[in-house]
Design goal:
mainly alpha, 10 helices, 74% helix
Length: 180
């Protein structure tokens, strides 16, 4: 069965996300991604040009940060944890970046871009006096949790429900938002 060019591109991108999430940038190869997509490696190059360009497409990640203006101030920490958990469980985009950011400067730059362009402006509305520090601390908690849960798969963290994570991490994020 023949696929349209858009379908082929989507299949390649899905295979790349899975492979980059599983192996990281360095270990993922065009041949492996092509095999996962059940296509010839030349098709990957045709649609994406290079491994770097394929990675750039696979590593696109929008936090889809929710509007928290209606959330009572005392509940912002819990709402932030919930928002991050809901977003990260929808796709592997962040895991692709996390696995690769320590060994690939482009991935690290994308993580910094997410911080500067998406998280920092959203946090500035919640904590205008010290948005950079607050966003940085929120990033440490959420990235640490994501690393332990989704990448390293530390059993006690994986076993926790989202509600348990909100219970444990929400108060910490609340302290950052409150500036205490």
């Amino acid at each position: 069965m023949r696929r349209s060019s858009e379908e082929t591109k989507a299949v390649i991108l899905a295979a790349a996300r899975d492979r980059f999430a599983e192996s990281g940038y360095q270990a993922a190869t065009i041949r492996a991604i092509a095999a996962d997509a059940r296509i010839d490696p030349s098709m990957v190059m045709r649609y994406f040009g290079s491994k770097d360009q394929l990675f750039a497409a696979a590593a696109e990640f929008d936090l889809e940060f929710p509007d928290l203006s209606d959330v009572p101030r005392a509940d912002l920490g819990a709402a932030l944890v919930e928002a991050f958990l809901q977003r990260w469980t929808r796709d592997d985009g962040l895991i692709v970046l996390m696995r690769s950011a320590t060994t690939n400067e482009e991935a690290a730059e994308r993580m910094r871009g997410i911080f500067a362009q998406q998280l920092l402006p959203a946090i500035a509305h919640l904590q205008p006096n010290d948005a950079g520090r607050c966003a940085g601390l929120i990033g440490t908690q959420m990235l640490g949790m994501a690393l332990c849960r989704f990448v390293l798969r530390i059993p006690p963290v994986v076993a926790m429900t989202n509600e348990e994570l909100v219970h444990w991490l929400g108060p910490t994020l609340q302290r950052y938002v409150d500036g205490a």
